[in-house]
Write a structure and sequence with these properties.
The complex is a heterodimer. Chain A is mainly α. Chain A has helices at residues 13-33, 36-56, 71-78, 80-96, 105-130, 133-158, 160-168, 188-193, 198-230; strands spanning 60-61, 66-67. Chain A has a two-stranded antiparallel ribbon with strand order 1-2. Helix content of chain B is 75%, strand content 0%. The chains are: A mainly alpha, B mainly alpha.
């Protein structure tokens, strides 16, 4: 639920342009910090994890429009710098598939990479403290998704003035458009009703998000356990206790 | 997403005027569609743009079974209904913006093979990024093959059943775990074969 595949044209131009600028700057810094040989060597792995994320996005849990992101497990396997590039690539491919807007690739990358980077850092932290794979993975995933969902809500709330403009522009523009309603009849009550209601949006997103955080947490934990059973080297865990 | 391979097949096999058009021109066209989505401020403008895109969709002889793909992003647009306080004008406008964007993108993909798009992008974007895009695209097909095999195994272990949620979650997670491990093995082999063929952080396309 962390990234809602914001469509094109809904957010104000300054916001999505800023999203692109920040994503490019952050990406450039993270890539600069990565050794070139390591990047070249890990590019196929990055491609494979990005492909797994794209494939995860295909499996939709219909009633709540949720799909697994696999960002945290990819973050754990790839590390913070490469997961950023991977989420950028995933968002470009998903946008090319009509799964989220082209203009919001930057913003979607930022919200989704919060999940990957934070998930990776928290996993290492919880592993050091708890020394147990199951709670470390679940907590890291749950908290990372919680943060990225609030980041997404923050992004949506930044566009409030733009939504108001879109709502109140009825009849403006090159072509006239009226829905059998005169502007003069626009009562104060109706005006209040037409105001942007972010609380309602949050009331819908957060409960659905909670189900998603738990589901993703459980799935990521089970995947991590599966990988730990077969290829523990991939998780880069220092001291093995479980 | 399984339709990705079918989209790729259509982009390569069909022979309409849009398929023959240069990928650069089609990408420029897509940029204009995006500009329209961002700049337009009235419903007739959006209806006109959507009408053009629909006409191009059917003139390009893209199979109708691909059409539902253009409707899929509407699922996410529904959330904006709750923001607006159910304002009909806002809802129709958001839906049309979404439909124009998704129809444009599906039209581009169904008439242009992915490598041709990446080749054009390679002229303006960093080579590392375009290589990562290409490798992801290649990996999707590798994973889809593994996924087909895994689906059979998943089905034999009970698949996904709402009556047994824990077992279903465990099955799905094991399937993803299996997919990831197999995928990583495949990526290691792919890297070795790429190095043998002289890979140095950049993939060259025909005509480069």
């Amino acid at each position: 639920m962390s990234h809602i595949h914001l469509p094109d044209g809904v957010l104000p131009v300054w916001l999505w342009v800023l999203g692109f600028v920040v994503a490019i700057v952050v990406g450039a810094i993270l890539l600069r910090l990565t050794k070139k040989e390591e990047l070249t060597k890990r590019l196929p792995l990055l491609g494979m994890m990005a492909a797994a994320m794209v494939l995860g996005a295909a499996i939709e849990i219909i009633p709540i429009a949720y799909h697994v992101n696999l960002t945290v497990i990819s973050g754990i396997l790839l590390g913070p710098s490469l997961i950023f590039l991977a989420t950028f690539v995933v968002n470009v491919i998903l946008a090319l598939f009509g799964h989220g807007g082209m203009t919001v690739i930057g913003l979607n990358t930022l919200t989704l990479s919060i999940e990957g980077i934070l998930g990776c850092i928290l996993f290492r932290l919880f592993w050091k403290v708890l020394k147990r794979l199951t709670p470390a993975t679940f907590l890291a995933t749950f908290i990372a998704l919680l943060f990225s969902t609030f980041a997404m809500i923050g992004v949506v709330s930044l566009g409030t003035s733009h939504y108001k403009e879109l709502i109140h522009q009825e009849g403006k523009g090159v072509f006239e458009f009226h829905l059998s309603k005169e502007k003069d009849d626009f009562h104060a009550g109706e005006r209040a009703k037409s105001e942007i209601n972010l609380k309602r949006f949050m009331a819908i997103v957060l409960p659905l998000g909670f189900i998603g955080w738990v589901l993703e947490g459980v799935i990521t934990t089970l995947i991590a356990r599966y990988i730990h059973r077969l290829r523990p080297d991939l998780l880069h865990l220092e001291k093995e206790t479980l | 997403m399984i339709q990705l391979s079918y989209l790729d097949y259509i982009a390569l096999e069909k022979k309409s005027f849009l398929h023959r058009l240069s990928p650069t021109l089609k990408i420029i066209g897509m940029v204009f569609v995006l500009l329209g989505i961002v700049m337009l401020r009235n419903l007739p403008g959006f209806l006109f743009l959507y009408g053009i895109l629909l006409a191009l969709f059917f003139l390009s002889r893209i199979p109708v079974k691909i059409f539902p793909l253009t409707l899929y992003p509407l699922i996410f647009a529904f959330l904006f209904i709750f923001i607006s306080g159910f304002q009909i004008h806002f809802i129709i406008m958001v839906f049309l913006k979404v439909l124009c964007g998704s129809t444009g993108v599906v039209l581009l993909l169904a008439t242009t093979p992915y490598p041709s798009i990446f080749s054009v992008l390679g002229r303006v974007l960093p080579s590392t990024f375009v290589t990562a895009l290409f490798l992801t695209y290649r990996s999707i097909f590798i994973l889809l093959n593994i996924f087909e095999e895994t689906q059979q195994a998943l089905y034999l272990r009970g698949g996904f059943q709402w009556r047994h949620p824990w077992r279903s979650l465990s099955n799905i997670s094991n399937a993803f775990g299996h997919l990831i491990i197999k995928g990583i093995d495949a990526s290691e082999k792919m890297y070795e074969s790429m190095v043998l063929r002289g890979f140095k952080n950049k993939i060259y396309y025909r005509g480069d």
